[in-house]
Write a structure and sequence with these properties.
It contains 19 helices and 12 strands. It starts with a helix and ends with a helix. The longest helix is centred in the N-terminal third of the chain and has 39 residues. With 468 residues, it is an alpha/beta fold. α5 packs antiparallel against α6. It is elongated. The strands form 3 sheets. Strands 9-4-1-2-3-10-12-11 form an 8-stranded mixed beta sheet.
Length: 468
């Protein structure tokens, strides 16, 4: 290759690279002013759109990103933009390439331009693949469930009540036991949230009118002759006895009966439910690369004390985190409930955008196996708006119906309903007696100030078990 051709080749590469960074440079340098100007304008428009989407329209983009149809369009857009960019680069090279190059130089030049196109296309391919994964995950979790109304769930609706369930379907256990039952009641105007937690071991829980109450007129007792039926057994019992919830298909009888049951216990309507499987929860933590927690004292777990989580600040794997949240050895259900709250808080804090992006596919796969719900897809944009309101302006208030506030073996159902109603009024009016502050918000309990610590002992000790 002659020296003059070498300089022409360098110039052609430089113009091609410049066109990859700013469309139209090679065309303008070659005298194609109209085409170059149009390409530059298109490039500017694309990046202005991306910039506005990341700043002023970020909320709107986030709403579109939870709708499968829009995700499909985004995926097509990513692929289309990658193809257009590669075409611009190839056209720029074709326009400015030197003539008369030998075969080795032509092969080297084409290889370099092809490599440049692949480098440019790679992030768009990643974005398109991630969008496809997100769409499939949304479709798997949020099916097109039947829904009341026209989808504008917050129009004229003061509160949205979502039942949050933690399903414990361990390796040596048949079925699902809902060991965590919490109703999240969200004020749609202010974003204030009240969490009403029911212990797993509530006995003789009154069931809703109909076949369920006809079978258990004095409260749920299950089929056990020696032990009373507990709240956490109702889900699986309904799945195994179709006559308890007639007309409801497999897999939906448990949530249906439990929603009606909790509604009756608390005296509040339940709009939707979300079930998180603990086994899948462990996979989710592994997909995050573990979770860092400070453990104040050793935690023994297992029926026969098979394992131990040593005290200290350490990263827990999925299985270790699951034991952290599940163990009751030398402990109690109520201490375990506090640890579960610590675990969720730690996960929320450590799920930063960089970690989510780098582990997106693993997280999505784990999420598909972890969460099930009856929230329909078309409600997701409204729920996302509400979540933003909760984060920006809302306060979180928690009321746990644990001893000594409530005797789980002989619950005072009227008192539970009264306290639930009072808790919903407290954020808008004045705090209830015995209010204490914890990390996740205000923990409200019905107790005289002199007995506040006794009544709210488990919740008040949350900061001690979840040190920063």
């Amino acid at each position: 290759m002659r020296h003059g051709q070498g300089r022409q080749l360098v110039r052609a590469f430089a113009l091609t690279l410049a066109s990859a960074l700013l469309w139209g440079v090679a065309h303008l340098a070659s005298g194609r002013r109209l085409t170059g100007s149009l390409l530059a304008a298109a490039y500017t428009a694309v990046f202005m759109g991306i910039g506005l989407g990341a700043t002023r329209w970020r909320g709107r983009i986030a709403e579109l990103a939870v709708q499968p149809d829009w995700l499909t369009l985004m995926m097509v857009g990513c692929v289309g933009l990658a193809v257009c960019w590669a075409v611009v680069v190839a056209a720029s090279w074709k326009l400015v390439r030197p003539v008369g190059l030998g075969a080795p130089a032509r092969i080297l030049a084409v290889s370099a331009v092809t490599g440049l196109c692949l480098v440019i296309a790679a992030p768009f391919a990643f974005a398109a693949h991630s969008t496809l994964v997100a769409r499939d995950t949304l479709t798997a979790i949020f099916g097109e469930h039947a829904d009341k109304g026209d989808g504008r769930v917050f129009a004229g609706k003061k509160r949205l009540n979502v039942l949050l369930l933690g399903g414990d379907s361990g390796r040596n256990r048949f079925g699902v036991r809902t060991d965590s039952v919490t109703l999240a009641s969200v004020d749609t105007r202010t974003g204030d949230v009240v969490l009403l937690g029911l212990p797993r071991n509530l006995e003789r829980v009154p069931l809703p009118e109909g076949p369920a109450r006809q079978r258990f007129p004095d409260g749920f007792t299950g089929d056990g002759a020696l032990t009373p039926g507990l709240l956490n057994e109702i889900y699986q019992y309904a799945e195994e006895h179709p006559d308890m919830v007639p007309g409801v298909p497999d897999g939906k009888r448990g949530p249906a009966l439990l929603k009606q049951t909790v509604s009756g216990v608390l005296g509040l309507p339940v709009d939707y439910h979300v079930l998180v499987d603990m086994k899948g929860f462990a996979q989710l933590i592994d997909a995050m690369g573990g979770v860092w927690l400070r453990i104040p004292e050793d935690i023994t777990f297992g029926k026969y004390n098979e394992g131990r989580l040593a005290a200290g600040y350490r990263r827990l794997s999925g299985s270790e985190a699951m034991w952290y949240g599940r163990s009751r050895t030398y402990s109690s259900d109520y201490v375990r409930m506090a640890r579960q709250k610590c675990l969720i808080r730690a996960m929320a804090r450590q799920a930063d955008p960089a970690r989510v992006l780098t582990r997106f596919e693993q997280l999505a796969a784990a999420t598909r196996h972890t969460i099930s719900t009856d929230v329909p897809q078309r409600l997701l944009p409204s729920l996302l708006k509400l979540a933003g309101k909760v984060k920006d302006k809302g306060t979180i208030t928690s009321l746990q119906f644990t001893p000594p506030l409530i005797d789980t073996s002989a619950p005072d159902w009227e008192r539970i309903r009264r306290l639930s109603a009072d808790a919903l009024l407290a954020p808008a009016a004045k705090p209830l007696r015995g209010t204490e502050h914890a990390d996740a918000g205000t923990v409200v309990q019905d107790a005289a100030p002199s007995r506040a610590h006794e009544t709210t002992g488990t919740a008040a000790s949350l900061d001690a078990t979840c040190p920063s």
